Structures are given as structure tokens and as C-alpha cells.
Amino acid sequence: MKSISIAILLNLFTLFSILAQQQEARCGFPKTTEEKKQQHGYFFDYQEQLNREIEKRKQEESLARTEETSFLIPIIVHVIHNGEPIGTGTNISAAQIQTQIDVLNEDYGNYHAYTNRTLPQFKDLADDARIRFILADFDPNGNRLAEKGIRRLPAPNGRRVWTFADFDRDVKPNTIWDTNRYLNIWTVDSLREGSTVFTGYSSLPDLTNLGGIPNNGSGNLNNTDGIVIRYNRFGSLAKIDVPQLRRTNARGFLFVYGRTLTHEVGHFLGLLHPWEAENCSFDGDYCPDTPLTSQEVIENHLNTECSLNQIRCGQVTMVQNYMDYGRDTCMTLFTKDQIRRMRTVLQVSPRRVALTKSNVVSYIDRILSDNISIYPNPTHHYIRVSAPDIRLKSYQIYHLQGQLVMQDYFDEITQSIDVSKLSAGIYLLQIQTNRGIAVKKILIE
Ligand SMILES: [Zn+2]
After folding, report:
1. N or C: the chain end with fewer CB closer than 10 Å?
2. Residue 262 CA, ligand 1 centroid: distance in Å
3. Where does the pLDDT of residue 318 fall: very low under 50, low under 70, confident under 90, or very high at 90 and above?
4. Ligand 1 center to residue 29 CA distance, Å?
């Protein structure tokens, strides 16, 4: 009898340890003032200067027409794995990685499939950030990468679980590529501080270009700048069905649609959580159009619906903002003020400015991504393709499952495609040009 009770106790103990392990938090951003000071002191000290720059741009925008420049950011993904074959376990496939880059572009372009779910009172605040991401073509020596934007590296000493400090000390400095040319992203088995597992964490931009900031104000960013994400929170189950993204526990569906990276790139480009001040009298994220909030969004982890009516500071809070802590499927927007803040950082933070001019993306990719735009998107009737100085030859439209649904040649004059016969959904538009092939995602409503 005794041994049976011990067995039961042991089982209960295991169960509780598993439950304890399941505490998973959205983001490893420091919570206390002391931690913030320690990890990002240079960033929080310079908010006044950054806010002056943002305000200056806001004034300029209201005088001139809206600024049109779009920014392209090259990414290298360091897949830190446990020695599995490619596509297995932590050694995630290129296809899974590509779904994550697609989510990132859809979110920063505000053309994901759920823009119409944004609460009516916030709809006008959502916009295209005109920031896009692309997997790098070349390594730092100019050699073409075997897998676009991907490096595969075994975990040092086979270690699976990392604290932020250990990862920053033991992995980043030995693996990081030039932070002026790549947005470095590491995927890892697990990130844990105490009993909490984190989906990911990011560094903040340095602001040493702004007046009055000492040159040594950027800390250790040469060796640590970038984003770390758990391998099973990287990519979207809506786009690819792989074991890594399938639900493993009651909370497993919260973070498997690619929004961890959307959120962390927000930090990488200078955004803070909307509740950063933790009170209702100060706008903690310095973005006036995100409603004042003193506390993060709380999810009912077993309820699959989005709880959109959470009240903070006496008003409905913006549950759907990418910088709050909602679940992946409930997130839908960045606001105009958040976008202005990120775009300002891309123009004043030395390391971020350099990224947008990086040469690790092939000329063809850059030209095509920068210079081919399609509109309106979403659409009902037609798509116009705008491509100055590029000759469009032909196109094919594919269903997301890969089935060809339309194809034709462009005529010299109109460069538009009648899509009125296609049923609602997301499609891939592949365009042949005299400079190469471009692929764009289109949404038919
Ligand atoms: Zn965060």
C-alpha cells in the first residue's frame, strides 16, 4: 500500500511540476524599474529626445503629404538546435521559418486576414507601417547562403533551457552577425526565468545619434542586439501544419500564430508595452492613440474566444494591439502613433538606420520588394500593379494550398488584373518581370 501511495504522490508531484512548467509569458521585457535601468538604461534615459524627434515628424507630416518611404529589413535566423535532422524538433524547417516572415510582413503591412476584426472604435488607428522584412541572401563575407536567411547551429554543450543572461553571454557573442547589416534572430529550445517560460525577448534600439547622448550609451549591443524566440513559437499554424506548432497543452494555442515575433520586433524598433507606466495618469508607451492602461491584457487561457471588452483606466482597452499581451489570434493592429515611433527609430537610431541600407539582400530581391506595389489590397474587383522602371511580363495567381487559379500576360498599358471571379480568401500573386520574379500576397474580400 505504502509504495502505491508513494507512486501516486510521485505522479502528483510530476503533474504539478508539469503544470508549473506550463507558466508561459508573452515577453521577457524587464518589469521592475531596476531591471529596466540595468538592461536598457540608455534607452529609457533618452525618451525625451526621442519624443522630440517623433513630435517634429508629426508636425512635418501634417504640413506635407504623408511620408511614403518604405523600409526593408534583412533577417538572419540562427536556428540553435539539439542535433535533430532538419525539420525535426528544434531544427525547424525553412518552410516554418518562411511562415513567420510572412506573418511579420502581413502584420507590419496591415494586410493580414483579420484586419476586419479590429474593434470599430480603433479601426481608423490601424495602418500599414511600410516596414517589410526579408530573409538575407548573403553571409557577412558576401557568399550566398545555402538556405536563404538561415544558419543552423548546435546548442553549446547540448543545453536546452536558457536564461536571458546566459544566452546573451554564452550564445549571442559567438554567433551574432554584424548588427548594422542583419536583424539577428535566434530560435531556441526554451527560455526560462524561475518557473516562467518566455516566448521570446528583444533588445531595444540605441539612440546615440540624438543630441546630448554620449557615444558609449549603447551598452553591449554589438554583441547582443537582436531577438530570441522559442522554436515552437516561431511561425504560424495557420500557414503550415508542423508538429512544432501543434497544441501540446491547454495553453498551447495561445502563441502558435507568429505574433511573438511581431511583438518583439515592436520592441526592437522602440515600442514599449501600452501599460509601461503601470498607472492611469501617465502615457507609458508615449503613443497617445493607444488608450491609457495600467495593466496588461489578461487572457482566460481555456477560453478560445477573444475577450475584447476588458476595461482599463475606465475605458475599453486595446486588447488587439500587438504590444499588449493578448493571444496570437486576437491581435490585429499597430496604431498610427506606434508606427510613427518605429519609423522615427528607423531614421535616428544608428544601428537601425544602417539596417535599412544593408547590402545582404540581393539587388533583385531589394528592387522587386521595394518597387513593385499592388493595390488595392484587400480588394473585390481588380488589382493594379505599380512597378516603375520594371517591365511586367506575366502573372499567376495561386490558392494558398498551391493550386493555380488564374494566369495571363500583362498588356503594356493597364497592368491591372481582374480578380472579381475569385472567391474570398488569401492568394499568392506571382509576377514575372524583366528583373526576376516577385511574389505578393493578395486578399480578396
Ligand atoms: Zn513585450
Report:
1. N
2. 10
3. very high
4. 5
